[in-house]
Amino acid sequence: MASPAFAKAYRESRSEIDAVDQLVRRLDEARLGLGVSKAELARAISAKPEIVRRLFTTENPNPTLATFVRLANALGYTLELVPQPSRGRSTGTRGRATSARDRLPDGVERSV
Fold it and tell me: Over its length of 112 residues, how does the chain's per-residue pLDDT go in tens digits?
């Protein structure tokens, strides 16, 4: 951690790993709250039971976004992109922060 570049890369990687882990844990909590077994959830997303079991029991899961979406949908949830609290975004017009959502390609409408 003596190197600033290494420390920055480590923090970024750690942040990504923690975000994935948190999402997996939240999905597992939802599954448990609904009383759905891992095998039932696997059937609901047309996956092998060991895939779902491994996802919820391994120390460092790394599922695809498609897997997250399928699991969430099967449990009656949706995934949502939420801006992080003030992470240095520049201020746009009308005093609100700009984000990727504000910079959509021409012809693509943004929902509010």
Answer: 788 888 888 888 888 888 899 999 999 999 999 999 999 999 999 999 999 999 999 888 889 999 999 999 999 999 988 898 876 555 444 444 444 444 444 444 444 4
The structural domain count of the chain equals 1
Contact 75, 36 (CB under 8 A): yes
Containing domain of residue 36, as a range? 4-79
Please report whether residue 91 resides in a domain: no
The alpha-carbon radius of gyration of the chain (Å, integer) is 18
CA distance 106 to 104: 7
* CATH number, domain containing residue 20: 1.10.260.40
Residue 98 lies in a domain: no
Query: What single letter denotes the amino acid at residue 11?
Result: R
